[in-house]
């Protein structure tokens, strides 16, 4: 579980860096309307890192009580964020 959580945190942070880069070059826009106003600020990456760590802590707490639920949920989140990363990287392929 620790490795899956570490992978999830890494994917969320990678998404933040890719989003920051793509938006600063005018190649993309932030899909989350709550984050749109802060993309480009230092607070954006800080919020992504803090949110990822908070989610990992919550998922770890769930794992201590409901192992199967936490493993399935965390695995689903990893798949979703991996898809987001692939989508963001595909923008580079179109250049």
Query: Describe the biggest sheet?
Result: none
- Structurally, the number of domains stands at 1
Overall pLDDT, averaged?
Answer: 91
Low-confidence stretches: none
**Helical fraction:** over 70%
Summary of the model, kept short:
The chain is mainly α.
Question: What features would you describe in this structure?
Answer:
- The protein is mostly helical and 95 residues long.
- It has one domain (2-93).
- It is built from 3 helices and no strands.
- The chain has helices at residues 2-24, 42-65, 67-93.
- It is globular, with a radius of gyration of 14 Å.
- The mean pLDDT is 91.
Which properties best describe this structure?
single chain, 95 residues, mainly alpha, 78% helix, globular
SSE topology:
Blueprint: H1 2-24, H2 42-65, H3 67-93
Helix pairs in contact: 1-2, 1-3, 2-3
């Amino acid at each position: 579980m620790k490795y899956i959580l570490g992978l999830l945190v890494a994917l969320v942070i990678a998404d933040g860096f890719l989003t920051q880069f793509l938006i600063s070059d005018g190649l993309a826009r932030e899909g989350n309307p709550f984050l749109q106003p802060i993309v480009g600020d230092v607070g954006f990456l800080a919020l992504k890192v803090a949110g990822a760590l908070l989610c990992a802590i919550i998922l770890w707490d769930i794992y201590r009580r409901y192992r199967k639920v936490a493993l399935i949920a965390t695995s689903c989140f990893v798949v979703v964020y991996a898809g987001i990363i692939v989508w963001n990287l595909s923008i580079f392929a179109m250049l």
